[in-house]
Design brief:
There is one protein chain. This protein is α/β, with parallel strands linked by helices. The chain is globular and about 75 Å long. It folds into 3 domains: 12-356, TIM Barrel (Alpha-Beta Barrel); 385-478 and 610-650, NAD(P)-binding Rossmann-like Domain (Rossmann fold), CATH 3.40.50; 488-607, FAD/NAD(P)-binding domain (3-Layer(bba) Sandwich). Strand 3 (23-25), helix 1 (41-51) and strand 4 (56-63) form a beta-alpha-beta unit. The strands form 7 sheets. It has an 8-stranded parallel beta sheet.
Length: 651
C-alpha cells in the first residue's frame, strides 16, 4: 500500500457505517434505469467501482413521489417493485466489502409534467428557467405526502440492503427549492426566515431516521452557493448544516455548488474551471459542524484529494468523473501506481453530454463505461502480428485492445509524437487537459508492450514488409476546402483551415472571420487563440448559436464569458456563399438577405475529408485490413475510441 496518501486511505466512521477510505463515488445520473426500475447495468456499474477500491458508493437519485419524473430514465423508488433491483445492486457491491448508500429525492419545480401528465410540485409558483413550467404551490397535505414518500422509499432501500440514505437537497431538489429564497416565496411556516425554509428538510430527516432506525447511515447533500441572484449562499448553507447537526438525525453532510438548471455548468464543471473550485463550501461547513463533510469539485487525481484532506477542507472526497474514466482509480492510487490512472479529461462529452441527449452514461476514453454488464473480450486464440497505422485516439485504442488479446502490436506514426487531432485540440487556450487522453493511451499501450514507431510514412510496401496477420488503418482525416472557396488567384482574402492555424502553418493577422460549421470546440478555440494574438475576430455560423454543441458539454456559458472579454464577435444564421475580392459573402437564411464581411483572413472550421487512400491501397493488395476513426468517417474522439476498441478486440 502506498504511504503517499496517508489520509486518503484511512478509515472513517459515518454514524453506524465505517468506510475503508475517503474516496466517495458520489451520486450522479446514469440513465441506466428501465421502466422506472434498476437494470442489470446498475449492479455491474457500481460493482466495478467497488472492486476498484472506492471507499463509499452513493447511487443516483431515486424518486420519492409520482409527481417527480423530470427525465425518462429515472428510478421510481416509491414503487415496491424496485426492491429486487436494489438487492442486486447492494449484493454486487457488498461482495467487495464496500458500503453503498441510496440517494433519494424529489426534484420539485425543476421538472415538467411531460411524463407524469401531472402538475409539477414546488414551494411556490416560480418557473424553472430550463423547464419553464409554472409549478403548483404545495399545500400542507401535499407536504405531508412528500415527507411520507421519503419515508416509504427509505423503507424500500432498507429492504434492498443499502447501508444508508443520502437526501438530495442540493442542485435539483424540492428541498433546495424550499431552502432557497429565490424559489420559496411562501408566507406560512415553511417560508420567510431560514428556520422556516428548512422546516421541510428537518421533517424529512426525522421521518427517514424513524424509518431506517439507528443501524443505517443518513446523510444530507446541501448546495453551498446556488450562483443565482437572490439564491442561497454559503452563509445559508452553513446555518442549515448547523440546524441539521443540532437535530441529531444525520451522520454526515455532502456538498454541491450551483443549481442543476440555471448554473449547471458549475456543478459538473469542464476543464475550463480549475480543479477543487468548490472546496470553499465543504471548508466553511466543516468549520461550523462536527459531522463528517464530503467535498466535491473536479478532483482529477489522488494527490489533489489528499491535499484537500490535509488542508482540512473536508473529511471525504467525491470523485465521480475520475472513477467513471477509471473504475480502478482508488486501487491504483492505493498500490502506488497513480501514474497508471486513466485521468478524466473533464471534457463532459460522454458522461454529462450523453445525459443531456437522453442516452446512457459513457466515457470518451473508457469504452467499458456503460457496458460493464456486457461480456468482455473473448479469447483471441493464437497470438497474431498486428500493424496499426496511425497513433491518434482510434489507432492507439485499437492497439491497446489488440494487445489485451495477447497479440503483438506495432503502431506506425508519421509524426514525431502520438495523438493526432487530440494533440492539436490540447494546444489551444484552456484545453490542455484534453491531451491527457493521449497520455493515458500511451501509458496503457506501453504497459501492454505495444511498439510505436515514429516518423514512418507508411505505404503498402512498408506495411507489407512487416508481414502482418492483420492491419488496422487509423490515418484520420484531412482538411478540405468547401465548394464556396474560389481558387487562390480569384480572391484576395487568405483562407486557412483551423488545423493549419493551430499547427502553425498559417498565421492570420488583422481582421479574421472564423466559419463555424462544426458547432464544437474547433471554431471557438481558434477564435480565442487568434484574439489572444491581437486579431479582430468574428465567428460566423449557419447555426442558431456559435459552438452550439458546447451547450451539451457545459462549455457554452464560459465560452460566452471569455468571448465577450476578448472582444470576439458572434454572428448566427449566416451561410457562407463565396468570396468576392476582399469580401466574404454570407446568406442570412431566415430572411434570404445577403451580407458581406471585408476581412483579411477566413479560418475554416468545416467538415474534413477521410484520409482513406492507404486503406484502399492495402485492400487492393489483398491484405486483411480494417479501418477505424476519422478515415472511416470524420467524427469526434469518443467515436474513434469506441471504434478502435471494437476492432482491436475483434482481431
Amino acid at each position: 500500500m502506498s504511504t503517499r496518501y496517508r489520509l486518503l486511505f484511512s478509515p472513517l466512521r459515518i454514524g453506524p457505517v465505517v468506510v475503508p477510505n475517503r474516496i466517495v463515488f458520489s451520486a450522479h445520473l446514469t440513465n441506466y434505469a428501465e421502466d422506472g426500475l434498476p437494470s442489470e447495468q446498475h449492479p455491474a456499474y457500481y460493482a466495478a467501482r467497488a472492486a476498484g477500491g472506492a471507499g463509499l458508493i452513493i447511487t443516483e437519485e431515486h424518486s420519492v413521489h409520482p409527481t417527480d419524473w423530470p427525465y425518462e430514465k429515472l428510478i421510481h423508488g416509491y414503487q415496491p417493485a424496485v426492491v429486487p433491483g436494489y438487492r442486486r445492486i447492494t449484493e454486487a457491491v457488498h461482495r467487495h466489502g464496500t458500503p453503498i448508500l441510496a440517494q433519494i429525492n424529489h426534484n420539485g419545480g425543476q421538472a415538467s409534467g411531460m411524463y407524469t401528465r401531472l402538475p409539477v410540485w414546488a414551494p411556490s409558483p416560480v418557473a424553472d428557467p430550463l423547464f419553464r413550467e409554472v409549478p403548483k404551490e404545495v399545500d400542507r397535505s401535499e407536504i405531508a405526502e412528500i415527507v411520507a414518500g421519503y419515508a416509504t422509499v427509505a423503507a424500500h432501500c432498507r429492504a434492498g440492503g443499502f447501508d444508508g440514505i443520502e437526501l438530495q437537497c442540493s442542485h435539483s431538489s424540492i428541498v433546495r427549492g424550499f431552502l432557497s429564497p429565490a424559489t420559496n416565496r411562501r408566507t406560512d411556516s415553511y417560508g420567510g426566515m431560514l428556520e422556516n425554509r428548512a422546516r421541510l428538510l428537518l421533517e424529512i430527516t426525522a421521518a427517514v431516521r424513524e424509518e431506517i432506525g439507528p443501524s443505517l447511515a443518513l446523510g444530507v447533500r446541501l448546495c453551498g452557493d446556488e450562483l443565482i441572484e437572490g439564491g442561497s449562499t454559503i452563509e445559508d448553507a452553513v446555518e442549515v448544516a448547523r440546524l441539521v447537526e443540532e437535530q441529531g438525525m444525520v451522520d454526515y453532510v455532502n456538498t454541491s455548488i450551483g443549481v442543476a438548471t440555471a448554473s449547471l455548468f458549475m456543478i459538473e464543471a469542464s476543464m475550463h474551471v480549475p480543479p477543487g473550485y468548490a472546496l470553499f463550501i465543504p471548508s466553511a461547513i466543516r468549520k461550523a459542524v462536527d459531522l463528517p463533510v464530503v467535498g466535491v469539485g473536479r478532483f482529477k487525481d489522488p494527490l489533489q484529494a489528499e491535499r484537500a484532506l490535509e488542508e482540512g477542507h473536508c473529511d471525504l472526497v467525491g470523485v465521480v468523473r475520475g472513477q467513471i474514466a477509471d473504475a480502478d482509480f482508488a486501487a491504483k492510487a492505493r498500490a502506488g501506481r497513480a501514474e497508471e490512472i486513466r485521468l478524466c479529461l473533464s471534457c463532459n462529452q460522454e458522461c454529462v453530454g450523453r445525459m443531456g441527449l437522453n442516452r446512457w452514461l459513457g466515457c470518451i476514453e473508457n469504452p467499458r463505461t456503460g457496458r460493464e454488464s456486457l461480456p468482455g473480450a473473448i479469447d483471441a486464440g493464437r497470438p497474431r502480428r498486428v500493424v496499426v497505422v496511425g497513433a491518434g485516439p482510434a489507432g492507439l485504442q485499437a492497439a491497446i485492445a489488440a494487445a489485451r488479446q495477447g497479440h503483438h502490436v506495432v503502431v506506425l506514426e508519421r509524426q514525431s509524437e502520438a495523438g493526432g487531432q487530440a494533440r492539436l485540440a490540447a494546444a489551444v487556450p484552456n484545453r490542455a487537459e484534453f491531451g491527457d487522453i493521449v497520455r493515458n493511451q500511451l501509458c496503457e499501450a506501453g504497459a501492454l508492450g505495444v511498439e510505436i514507431r515514429y516518423r514512418v510514412e507508411a505505404d503498402a510496401g512498408v506495411v507489407t514488409s512487416l508481414r502482418p496477420d492483420a492491419v488496422v488503418v487509423a490515418t484520420g482525416a484531412e482538411p478540405a476546402l468547401p465548394y464556396w472557396v474560389p481558387a487562390e488567384d480569384a480572391r484576395s482574402v487568405r483562407v486557412a483551415d483551423v488545423r493549419h492555424v493551430i499547427e502553425g502553418g498559417a498565421s492570420p493577422e488583422g481582421s479574421v472571420v472564423v466559419i463555424d460549421e462544426l458547432g464544437f470546440h474547433q471554431a471557438t478555440s481558434v477564435a480565442e487563440l487568434l484574439a489572444d494574438r491581437g486579431c479582430r475576430v468574428e465567428v460566423v455560423t449557419p447555426g442558431m448559436v456559435v459552438g452550439q454543441d458546447l451547450g451539451i458539454t457545459l462549455d457554452l456559458e464560459n465560452w460566452n464569458i471569455r468571448a465577450a472579454a476578448k472582444g470576439i464577435a458572434q454572428s448566427t444564421d449566416l451561410v457562407p456563399m463565396g468570396i468576392e475580392g476582399d469580401e466574404l459573402v454570407l446568406l442570412h437564411h431566415p430572411t434570404g438577405a445577403h451580407q458581406r464581411r471585408r476581412c483579411d483572413w477566413v479560418v475554416l472550421a468545416v467538415p474534413p475529408a477521410p484520409a482513406e487512400g492507404l486503406y484502399h491501397e492495402l485492400r487492393a493488395a489483398g491484405m486483411v485490413v480494417q479501418r477505424v476513426g476519422d478515415c472511416v468517417a470524420p467524427r469526434r474522439a469518443h467515436a474513434a475510441v469506441v471504434e478502435g476498441d471494437r476492432v482491436g478486440a475483434s482481431l
